[in-house]
Amino acid sequence: MLLQRVLFALKAHNVRYPWVVCSDLLLGPSSLSFRSHTCGELRSDHVGQKVTLCGWVQYLRQDLFVILRDFSGLTQVLIPQEESANNLKAALCGLAVESVVKVTGTVRKRPAGQENKLMPTGEIEILAQNLEVFNICRKLPFEMKEFVKKSEALRMQYRYLALRSSQMQKNLRLRSQLVMKMREYLCNVHGFVDVETPTLFKRTPGGAKEFVVPSREPGLFYSLPQSPQQFKQLLMVAGVDRYFQIARCYRDEGSKPDRQPEFTQVDIEMSFVDQAGIMALVEGMLQFSWPAEKGPLQVPFQVMTYNEAMRDYGVDKPDTRFNMKLIDLSEVFSSTKIEFLRSALSQSEGSIQAICVPSGAVRTNPVKLLSVPETENLLSRAEAKPGDLLLIAAGSLRLPLLGNLRLQCAQLLESHGLSLRDPSAFHFLWVVDFPLFLPKEDNPEELDSAHHPFTAPRTEDTDLLLSEPHKVRGQHYDLVLNGCEIGGGSIRIHKASLQLHVLKNILKEDPSLLSHLLEALDSGAPPHGGIALGLDRLVSVVVGASSIRDVIAFPKSFRGHDLMSHAPDTVSEEELKPYHISIKWPTEQRGGGGGGGSAGK
Amino acid sequence: MLLQRVLFALKAHNVRYPWVVCSDLLLGPSSLSFRSHTCGELRSDHVGQKVTLCGWVQYLRQDLFVILRDFSGLTQVLIPQEESANNLKAALCGLAVESVVKVTGTVRKRPAGQENKLMPTGEIEILAQNLEVFNICRKLPFEMKEFVKKSEALRMQYRYLALRSSQMQKNLRLRSQLVMKMREYLCNVHGFVDVETPTLFKRTPGGAKEFVVPSREPGLFYSLPQSPQQFKQLLMVAGVDRYFQIARCYRDEGSKPDRQPEFTQVDIEMSFVDQAGIMALVEGMLQFSWPAEKGPLQVPFQVMTYNEAMRDYGVDKPDTRFNMKLIDLSEVFSSTKIEFLRSALSQSEGSIQAICVPSGAVRTNPVKLLSVPETENLLSRAEAKPGDLLLIAAGSLRLPLLGNLRLQCAQLLESHGLSLRDPSAFHFLWVVDFPLFLPKEDNPEELDSAHHPFTAPRTEDTDLLLSEPHKVRGQHYDLVLNGCEIGGGSIRIHKASLQLHVLKNILKEDPSLLSHLLEALDSGAPPHGGIALGLDRLVSVVVGASSIRDVIAFPKSFRGHDLMSHAPDTVSEEELKPYHISIKWPTEQRGGGGGGGSAGK
Questions:
Q1: Residue A187 exposed, middle or buried by CB count within 10 Å (0-12, 13-18, 19+)
Q2: Cα angle for residues A276, A281, A285 (degrees, 5° grid)
Q3: Which residues of chain A from 223 to 252 reach within 8 Å of chain B, CB to CB?
């Protein structure tokens, strides 16, 4: 400690190198800094020490105290009252809030009875001896304490002020820590290689959600990729063995609200591994990186098949923090006389299902439609108690109606004070055995990839690829946290012949568009698989944020705008010239004419 | 070891979780994998062990050996010759090179005299007992051993094959390790926060090198930023205190060769710090992350002022691995009668300088132009010995002529076998005290920022900002390694009034374009500074690569093309519609007409 103070003094006198030579002694958040401590760390152990703090003026109190803030917390600075310190007193009392200062002083115990137990530094205060004003806060768009009441738009415009809140500071720091631990786990524990892949890429055919980037060659465009999928597979073909990247990805969702046009995924790919290996890796990574203050994470996570998820929760990403599972009542109504129920049961995958909302009904509703045995059978099957509400739906098993209703009921019950889901609980769940293909929405006779065309079939289902492809299950796994899909991955097809069959014969796509991938698979591709986790979503669930915007430093608005810098912005036709593009204004488009000045006659 | 094998056996039988529970025992590059070891790690210590290797068939030898390869090296597999193993023998002998296999067998010592000392695994071989062929290599564009002879274009097209070379594997792994250690140093040692900043940003006015990204709103464009400069300063205003990011940046250099349109920088910003603090931080970071096999790095690095660099080396990024400094001969010729020398000396900043190339001349050249005292004076001043070559230039001090000549001479001498620069030496150098402003190239009466308009002046020069701005030195520092500029940074202006003065009165720029930054500085900005290191360049110097393409997994070609996937590519007018742009083909442009089909008559 003495040595540290000696070094600090040397540094204060602009002696440049001693503290580097002894750098082991000057680590942590105040290394190489004008301050000796942060505003959040002083305790009664420090009483008597001379310290230097740097920070923002949070507020002044009674011309006696300045409360100083930095990222780590608050410290109370006592303004000296004796006459000899009049200049210092005047300077301190005149500080505008949010001004940035350096205060040197001595740590002292607060007088008995004046401790603040709610404040981590509440046992002490700093008797100011010196003040340097780095910057005066001359202008704020509004008072900081009014900030939370301001509109979202205003808070986005002054994002750098919003980020000063302790919550945003915590969110950004937790995110950084989580990612750092993930990297340590992947790199240092399991020998993964962090490889950067290009973001100026080729447009995926039909990739309607891909931003285009004009090049200086007429008519040629790069595209910002939605994920490094092709590159990570090529890295396995290249023998990189274990790849990861915290990858920036892009998706142009147009006007879809609450989507960020750029987002981040934890992207992982591994050779010579099976599905269980990837799942164990991800479990280990989350356990390793999980913030200590959120309690330990139990592994392995629960595993559920897609069919089980759909049957019990009516959705492929169930929130397993509460029960209220779907109850199959098809048998109860097997000989019902009610016409719409009979008709529902007669269709393919038709069923009658219910959820039982505990205490969901104020009084028992007599169900006039049902016969007495049906009612009795129904109530016993649903294990419904008096006061419970039964919601019954009839139709295709695949319809998300009851799954959605289940979540809405939970929200409704919670908004009425019922504690259904523990807000501090984290329920991780793997969903596996997805169908490899699903009927196309616009043409149910044809098949589409349930996830993407590179997913390998389950080995025991491979033969079905030729006969009944719709029955094939994929080696795909989704990771769900508290009902949010936070990741998905698969073992990939590593043989060119199988990949070609899937593309050409099942998906009816033009395989020449992926010729470089097919060629790569034929040059010696190892078995491989991987996963991608949505980092923004994962962090937002971990910190309990209502939007991913709360875990991103500079998010875009609902409409994809940066309200602080005004992006996107206009660009002159002159500046577009090197890119060989011109703007097609909607009116001209309606007029059906060409571009430029020739639109008239 | 026994436990490890038990766990491995359990895993081989698809028992999923035991090795997770005991995960401490199954770490490293073969964790969770089909293999028990990599192809580079077996030694005579392993003799007698049953092992499983996965890898690529490097080559076959005499129907006796298969050489198996993975990222870590090569292992020799012995093909069993006894009759009972005929099937296995046939399978192994029939393997096409670059096929991917799993081999199980027993480690044995090579027979005496057959060890290969050049091969890390050369003491042992694996007696094969089992083979699984994962994938047959059916097609290679050429033989792998011919690869290095192929054209750059072909090697880029088959990049995944180029990456299989041990050199590229090493480069990518060294890069990953270096970055990982940098992160550990910044995050874990000094409390930095890894914050991601947007890459869909607003176009910088006049930012001719910024790619544009059309949005779905007519006439509005995002822009891919050249660096996170504005965001990192705003993060300091936001109180984040210590930010870093391994940031993807974009620069559209058009047709400039050997530039990558996207590149990566280690981006750092700190509050409450001075120039010496940032320099010490970077020195510590490089020392901490420096690859052990490159020898220890000495800190502090040498520091040189801009004026010293220009005077002694004729360049602001001197290669200090060799001497051959510039010698000022102005005094020698102070009363010369040679007209062009007199004229050179009479101009502003005019001088006569020389470099002395040791043994650069085969025989002494009689210099007929010079008088005897001039020649004697000259030779003594240059400390030239018989056989040395003196290159003399007269003109402005700022011309890069002799600086370039010095480097070209070094190359020339080295190409003739002289060892001038130690290829294993790493000379780091800080260049400081740059002028804050330089005369504009097209109009020397006006000033431009030497680096960028946010650089703070040296405190003692601040007053000159009003009177003689061209004399102001900036708090800017460049980091040079072996004559390559690998980084640059500065202490920033943190007061709005000063920033406004620089923008408006000195640079004559429209300050409203940076109004959000000026407003931010007035809301309580701390003193701050930072640096950005060019990661691609740094890694390429460390590994001794001739191009940054050798340290990037999927680089673009000279012309900015991805030759593997064919990016950039055409996009249909239909797909451009949502972005309200159309292509302006050069011929149409020349014709002056509009777009689309209306171009004719």
A1: buried
A2: 150
A3: 223-224, 230-231, 234-235, 237-242, 248, 250, 252
Tell me, yes or no, if B274 comes closer than 8 A to chain A by beta carbon.
Answer: yes
Q: Provide the H-helix boundaries in A392-521.
A: 401-415, 464-467, 496-501, 515-521
Of A183, A230, A581, the CB nearest to B582: A581
B254 touches chain A (CB under 8 A): yes
Strands (E), B272-349: 302-305, 327-328
Domains of chain A in sequence order: 34-135 (2.40.50.140), 172-284+439-552 (3.30.930.10), 570-601 (no CATH)
Asked whether the beta carbons of B265 and B535 are under 8 A apart, the reply is yes
Residues of B in contact with A158 (CB under 8 A): 523
**What is the sign of the dihedral through the CA atoms of A538, A544, A550 and A556?**
positive
Residue B18 contacts A where some CB pair is shorter than 8 Å = no
Q: Is A532 helix (H, G, I), strand (E, B) or coil?
A: strand
Looking at the partner chain, which of B31, B213, B220 has a beta carbon nearest the beta carbon of A213?
Answer: B213
Please compute Rg for chain A using Cα positions: 31
- Taking alpha carbons only, the member of B486, B462, B443 closest to residue B266 is B486
Tokens standing for residue A291: 């913030």
CB contacts of B69 in chain A (<8 Å) are 239
Which of A169, A177, A582 lies nearest to residue B584, judging by beta carbons?
A582
pLDDT digits 0-9 by tens, A396-453? 766 778 899 999 989 988 888 888 899 899 999 999 999 999 999 888 889 999 999 9
Q: Which residue has the higher pLDDT, A282 or B145?
A: A282
The CA distance from B164 to the nearest CA of chain A, in Å, is 5
Interface of A with B in 44-63 (CB under 8 A): 54, 56
Given a contact cutoff of 8 angstroms between Cβ atoms, the answer to whether A528 and A236 are in contact is: yes
- B177-214 per-position pLDDT tens digit: 999 999 999 999 999 999 999 999 998 776 779 999 99
Per-residue burial over B287-300, b if 16 or more Cβ lie within 10 Å, else e, is bebbeeeeeeeebb
pLDDT tens for A13-38 read 444 443 344 444 468 999 999 999 99
The pair phi, psi for residue B381, each rounded to 5°, is -65, -40
> Please, which residues bridge with residue A77 across strands?
A66, A126
* Residue B26 forms contact with A (CB below 8 Å): no
Alpha-carbon distance of A160 to A154, in angstroms, equals 11
Give the residue from A418, A533, A411 showing the smallest Cα distance to A484.
Answer: A533
* Helix (H), strand (E) counts: chain B: 18, 22
For chain A, count helices (H), then strands (E).
18, 22
Considering only CB atoms, which chain B residues are within 8 Å of A102?
Answer: 272
Chain A, 195 to 224: residues with Cβ < 8 Å from chain B are 195-203, 208, 211-224
